C-alpha cells in the first residue's frame, strides 16, 4: 500500500492496461465506480421492493398506502440502498500508493485545551515518539483552563525535548482557540489534534505523505480515529466498532469519491493557506464540518488516509455520549443550512452531502416507527417489524465483513492487533441504531430551535 512508484513509471489514463510487477492492472475512473455502485444499489432496492410487497400490503391495510410507503422507505428501502451503495463502493476502492512515505516537511500541530492537565503530557509524549523525519512544532492553546494545563505542557516539552509553544485564549470555544493558534503557524501544513488523542508512531508521517501525494486542489486530509478506552464500559465497547467499522467505512466511501465530508478536528491535516482563505474555523457547533464543507463549496477536495491512525477516549457514560452525538447531528444540520448540497460544484459531493438531507427523515422514522414497531412485534403484532425486516441484516453483515478485512490489513501494516470484543460487536449490530436515532433527533431539534450549546 505504501510502496514507492518506480522512477520511470508514468501515470496511465483510465481504462488502459499497464504492466506492474509482471501483472496487468486495470484502472477504473472514479465516475465509473460511482455509476457502477449506483446501479447495483438501485438493483438491490428493486429486489427489496419486490420481496416486501406482502409487508407493504399488510401495513397499508392498517395505516394506508402513503404512510406505509413512508415508513417502509425509511426503515428498509433507503437504508438498504445506502448500505448497498457503500458495499459496492468499498469493493471497488483502491487507495492510491504514496509517492514518498518519508516526507520531511516542517509541520505544526495545534492542540486546543481546556482543563487537560491530566492528559496533555501523554498527548505530547506520543507526538515526541513520532517516526517523522521532518520538524514538528506544537502550539498548545490554553482555552481559559482553570487547572495547570500550561505548566504541565511546558514541563513535558522540556523533558521530552520537543518544540512546544503554549498560548492563552480567554474566549471559550474550540474555534476561538484554534484561530488564535493559527496566528502562530508559519508552516505550509497545519495539523489539529485533540488533547485526549494519542497518535500512532507513524500517524504524522502517513498523513503528511498523503497530503504530499495528493493533487494540488486537495486542501485537507482526515486521519483515522479509533477508540483507546474500549475496555471501560459496554458503551465504549460499542463505540469501538462504530469507529472501527461504521465511521471508517463512511470515511473510505467519501474518500473514494474525493469528498470526505469531515476533516475532523480530532486529527486532520490542512493547507494553512486554505484555512486562512476560508477565514479560519467558524464559530459553530460543528466547526470542523462547516470548515470542510466550505472547502468543498470552493471546489477544493478533501481526502482520507486510513494509515494515519490516532486513538481517542470516547464517552463512557450515556449522558456524555448523548451530548456528543446530539452535537454531531446538530453540526450536520448547521452545515446543511449554510451550504446547500445542490450548490456544491462536484457531482459526488452533491450526492454525499445530499445524503445528509435524508438522515433526519430516516432517524425520525426509526425513532417513532421502527422502535414502537419493535415493541409491537414482541406483542405479536408484526405490522412494522417482522421477518421481512431481517433482509437488511445480511447486507449489514457483509458491509462490516468487507471493511473488517480491509481494516485487518491496515492494522497489519501498522503492527496493531484487533481487540477481541464480541459483546461490543453484537450490541453494535443489533442495538446501536436504537440508541443513535433518538439522540440524533434531539440534535436536530436543538438546531432547529437554536437551543443553547452544550459541550461537556
TrEMBL record:
Residues 108-275 form the Glycosyltransferase 2-like domain. Keywords: Glycosyltransferase, Membrane, Transferase, Transmembrane, Transmembrane helix. The keyword Transmembrane helix applies. It comes from the Bacteria. The chain crosses the membrane at residues 34-53, 59-92, 381-402, 422-445. GO terms for molecular function: glycosyltransferase activity. The keyword Glycosyltransferase applies. InterPro entries: Glyco_trans_2-like, Nucleotide-diphossugar_trans. Pfam families: Glycos_transf_2. Belongs to the glycosyltransferase 2 family. This is Glycosyl transferase. It comes from Formimonas warabiya. The lineage of its organism: Bacteria, Bacillati, Bacillota, Clostridia, Eubacteriales.
Amino acid at each position: 500500500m505504501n510502496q514507492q512508484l518506480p522512477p520511470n513509471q508514468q501515470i496511465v489514463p483510465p481504462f488502459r492496461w499497464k504492466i506492474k510487477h509482471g501483472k496487468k492492472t486495470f484502472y477504473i475512473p472514479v465516475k465509473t465506480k460511482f455509476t457502477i455502485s449506483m446501479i447495483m444499489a438501485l438493483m438491490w432496492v428493486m429486489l427489496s421492493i419486490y420481496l416486501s410487497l406482502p409487508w407493504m400490503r399488510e401495513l397499508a391495510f392498517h395505516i394506508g398506502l402513503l404512510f406505509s410507503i413512508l415508513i417502509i422507505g425509511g426503515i428498509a428501502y433507503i437504508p438498504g440502498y445506502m448500505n448497498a451503495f457503500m458495499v459496492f463502493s468499498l469493493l471497488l476502492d483502491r487507495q492510491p500508493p504514496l509517492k514518498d512515505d518519508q516526507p520531511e516537511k516542517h509541520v505544526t500541530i495545534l492542540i486546543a485545551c481546556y482543563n487537560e492537565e491530566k492528559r496533555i503530557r501523554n498527548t505530547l509524549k506520543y507526538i515526541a515518539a513520532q517516526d517523522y523525519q521532518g520538524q514538528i512544532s506544537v502550539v498548545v492553546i490554553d482555552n481559559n483552563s482553570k487547572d495547570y494545563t500550561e505548566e504541565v505542557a511546558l514541563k513535558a516539552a522540556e523533558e521530552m525535548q520537543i518544540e512546544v509553544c503554549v498560548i492563552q485564549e480567554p474566549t471559550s470555544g474550540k474555534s476561538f482557540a484554534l484561530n488564535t493558534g493559527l496566528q502562530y503557524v508559519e508552516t505550509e501544513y497545519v495539523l489539529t489534534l485533540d488533547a485526549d488523542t494519542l497518535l500512532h508512531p507513524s500517524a504524522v508521517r502517513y498523513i503528511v505523505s498523503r497530503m504530499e501525494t495528493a493533487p494540488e486542489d486537495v486542501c485537507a486530509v482526515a486521519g483515522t480515529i479509533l477508540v483507546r478506552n474500549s475496555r471501560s464500559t459496554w458503551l465504549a465497547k460499542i463505540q469501538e466498532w462504530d469507529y472501527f467499522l461504521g465511521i471508517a467505512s463512511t470515511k473510505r466511501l467519501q474518500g473514494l469519491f474525493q469528498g470526505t465530508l469531515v476533516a475532523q478536528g480530532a486529527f486532520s491535516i490542512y493547507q494553512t493557506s486554505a484555512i486562512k482563505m476560508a477565514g479560519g474555523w467558524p464559530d459553530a457547533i460543528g466547526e470542523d464540518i462547516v470548515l470542510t464543507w466550505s472547502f468543498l463549496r470552493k471546489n477544493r477536495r478533501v481526502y482520507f488516509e486510513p494509515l494515519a491512525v490516532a486513538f481517542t477516549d470516547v464517552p463512557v457514560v450515556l449522558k456524555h455520549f448523548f451530548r456528543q452525538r446530539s452535537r454531531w447531528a446538530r453540526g450536520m444540520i448547521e452545515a446543511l443550512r449554510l451550504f446547500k448540497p445542490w450548490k456544491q460544484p462536484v457531482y459526488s459531493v452533491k450526492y454525499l452531502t445530499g445524503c445528509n438531507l435524508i438522515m433526519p427523515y430516516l432517524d425520525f422514522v426509526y425513532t417513532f416507527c421502527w422502535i414502537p414497531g419493535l415493541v409491537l412485534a414482541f406483542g405479536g403484532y408484526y405490522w412494522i417489524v417482522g421477518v421481512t425486516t431481517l433482509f437488511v441484516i445480511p447486507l449489514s453483515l457483509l458491509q462490516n465483513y468487507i471493511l473488517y478485512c480491509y481494516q485487518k490489513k491496515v492494522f497489519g501494516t501498522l503492527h496493531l492487533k484487533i481487540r477481541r470484543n464480541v459483546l461490543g460487536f453484537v450490541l453494535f449490530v443489533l442495538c446501536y441504531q436504537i440508541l443513535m436515532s433518538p439522540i440524533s433527533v434531539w440534535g436536530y431539534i436543538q438546531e432547529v430551535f437554536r437551543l443553547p450549546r452544550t459541550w461537556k
